[in-house]
């Protein structure tokens, strides 16, 4: 491994948190993402990098019947999404407390309510670097789709005006200055207003084009981690990558990160030594043909390896 991750205890252990879950959005298949990533050899690849790997199967989430989970406002599967993320928060938090490095594989991005809550339960001053085509910060008031995978940040920041008791378990301790985005290019009108109102820093594809990815990652770190002392949670939605690089995902948007730009982000953040958790989300193996699926799964695995210290030389 190139750099030591300073918050992680020896012998370095990566805990795979497999989350076969699709309830935060309507397209079936994204729940199969984690199974494909593990079947592609992710565990052995991380061992090859020098990690001990803890993986004892994918999460088995409780079932919540559709009839007992009617929409709240227009939010779909609100109780199910909440309970699943609460369970994930428990696992991620437990691994973090043991000094392990949780690698959460989704599943849709609503799961980040769980992963980030878990990280913050052990590292309350952690910052979040969110790599995505989307801001996923819609509130109960602004969401047009009602898909909760477009909303996790609003719950984590505590900026919803409407109170939904089911989500009371989320402690909104993340502050807007400890969140930064890279890769945005499909941001809803309401989300743009939220980003402005709270002064949340975002590097869209425009800034990636303008400054180059090296400078953008440096500026992003300077913003959320000026003294380079805060633990970093990196949440990576594969749709941040261009659809030519990662085609098998539910909400692809053209004009995305190249293969190298995506990997560079993971490598550079690993190099800080501050990384404490990584999510790879929104791989949907039932979208696109077989070779496109294999390509997307392979990219998912290689992003995880980069975040865990794989270097080119
Ligand atoms: N995790 C994702 N892929 N999110 C896509 C969100 C799309 C849209 N902004 C919505 O709120 O529905
Ligand atoms: Mn996205
Ligand atoms: Mn996302």
Structure description:
The protein is built from ten helices and eight strands. The protein has 313 residues and is an alpha/beta fold. The protein has one domain (14-308): 3-Layer(aba) Sandwich (Arginase, Chain A), CATH 3.40.800. The protein has an eight-stranded parallel β-sheet, with helices on both faces. β4, α5 and β5 form a beta-alpha-beta unit. α3 packs parallel to α4, α8 (213-224) runs parallel beside α9 (259-271) and α9 packs parallel to α10 (290-307). It is globular, with a radius of gyration of 18 Å. The termini are close together. The structure holds arginine and manganese (II) ion (2 copies). Residues 109, 134, 136, 138, 143, 145, 147, 149-150, 188, 237, 239, 251, 282 line the site of arginine. One manganese (II) ion (MN) binds at residues 132-134, 237, 239, 251.
CATH class: Alpha Beta
Q: Please state roughly what percent of the residues sit in beta strands, choosing from under 5%, 5-15%, 15-25%, 25-35%, 35-45% or over 45%.
A: 5-15%
Largest sheet: 8 strands, parallel
> Into which percent range does the helicity of residues fall?
25-40%
Rg from alpha-carbon coordinates: 18 Å
Low-confidence blocks of residues: none
Query: In CATH terms, what is the architecture?
Result: 3-Layer(aba) Sandwich
Number of helical segments?
Answer: 10
**Terminal Cα span:** 11 Å
């Amino acid at each position: 491994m190139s750099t030591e991750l300073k918050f992680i205890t020896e012998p370095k252990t990566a805990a795979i948190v497999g989350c076969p879950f699709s309830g935060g959005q309507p397209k079936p298949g994204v729940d199969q993402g984690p199974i494909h990533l593990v079947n592609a050899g992710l565990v052995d690849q991380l061992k090859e990098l020098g990690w001990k790997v803890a993986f004892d199967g994918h999460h088995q989430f409780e079932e919540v019947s559709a009839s007992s989970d009617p929409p709240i406002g227009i939010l779909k599967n609100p109780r199910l999404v909440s309970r699943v993320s609460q369970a994930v928060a428990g696992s991620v938090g437990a691994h973090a407390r043991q000094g392990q490095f949780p690698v959460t594989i989704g599943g849709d991005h609503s799961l980040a309510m769980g992963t980030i809550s878990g990280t913050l339960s052990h590292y309350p001053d952690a910052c979040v670097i969110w790599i995505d085509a989307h801001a996923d910060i819609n509130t109960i008031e602004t969401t047009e789709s009602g898909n909760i995978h477009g909303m996790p940040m609003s719950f984590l920041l505590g900026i919803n005006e409407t109170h939904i008791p089911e989500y009371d378990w989320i402690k909104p301790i993340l502050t807007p200055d400890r969140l930064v985005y890279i890769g945005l290019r499909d941001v809803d009108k309401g989300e743009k207003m939220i980003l402005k109102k709270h002064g949340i820093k975002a590097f869209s594809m425009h800034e990636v084009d303008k400054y180059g990815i090296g400078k953008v990652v440096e500026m992003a770190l300077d913003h959320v981690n000026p003294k380079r002392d805060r633990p970093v949670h990196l949440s990576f939605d594969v749709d941040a990558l261009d659809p030519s690089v990662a085609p098998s995902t539910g909400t692809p948007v053209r004009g995305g990160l190249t293969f190298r730009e995506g990997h560079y982000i993971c490598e550079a953040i690993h190099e800080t030594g501050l990384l404490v958790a990584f999510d790879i989300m929104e791989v949907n193996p039932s979208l696109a043909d077989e070779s496109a699926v294999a390509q997307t799964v392979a990219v998912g695995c290689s992003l995880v390896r980069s975040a865990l210290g794989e270097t080119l030389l």
